[in-house]
Write a sequence for this structure.
């Protein structure tokens, strides 16, 4: 009977977990905890540093609004392409300004509506050659001012566009500005075109 009791005592006896294994688990937990804490600190430091180095795009100050000017004439003749002239025509200037105080970009659209497509095709060849000769005489590339001739049926369109830094005393006349004129603001450009018979409107009028 004693042997049976001893046997049962041995069966229900559980050996407690050794302190060494428990220490290892605690050590792993601490390592994981400190690693996560380290990562959190690094992230917080990065966020704090980014607060002092924000970047912004666009012009300063940020509240500067682009303003536009549009001037149109149905009688003006574009002297850079005047060897053929249609009775129906439109010469248009579109300009964009930084807040109305400084030119950003400027474009010209010269549209001529000929009586028939034969006259239009002939005019395109002649005016194209005239315009390119003018560029060549000035020492400019054929692509200067992003110029483009478009022809659709009876309508021939010449378009130019450039940024403000391309406008100087030798290029002003391509955009109907006298070389002696020093224009800066939207109002000064408007006065320049209105004095040549253009009808002008601007985004400032709607503000």
């Amino acid at each position: 009977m004693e042997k049976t009791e001893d046997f049962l005592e041995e069966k229900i006896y559980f050996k407690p977990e050794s302190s060494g294994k428990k220490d290892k688990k605690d050590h792993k937990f601490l390592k994981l905890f400190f690693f996560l804490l380290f990562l959190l600190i690094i992230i917080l430091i990065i966020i704090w540093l980014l607060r002092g180095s924000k970047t912004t795009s666009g012009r300063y100050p940020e509240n500067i609004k682009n303003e536009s000017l549009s001037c149109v004439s149905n009688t003006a003749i574009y002297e850079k392409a005047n060897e053929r002239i249609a009775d129906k025509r439109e010469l248009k200037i579109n300009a964009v300004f930084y807040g109305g105080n400084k030119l950003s970009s400027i474009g010209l659209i010269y549209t001529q509506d000929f009586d028939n497509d034969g006259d239009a095709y002939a005019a395109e060849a002649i005016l194209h050659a005239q315009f390119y000769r003018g560029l060549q005489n000035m020492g400019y590339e054929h692509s200067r001012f992003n110029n483009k001739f478009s022809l659709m049926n009876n309508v021939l369109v010449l378009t130019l566009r450039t940024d403000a830094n391309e406008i100087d005393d030798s290029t002003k006349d391509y955009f109907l500005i006298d070389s002696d004129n020093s224009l800066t603001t939207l109002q000064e450009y408007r006065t320049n075109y209105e004095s040549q018979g253009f009808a002008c409107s601007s985004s400032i009028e709607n503000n």
Observations:
- Helices lie at 2-12, 19-51, 117-137, 186-194.
- Confidence is low (pLDDT under 50) at residues 52-61.
- The CA atoms of residues 32 and 82 lie 81 Å apart.
- The first strand starts at residue 66 and ends at 73.
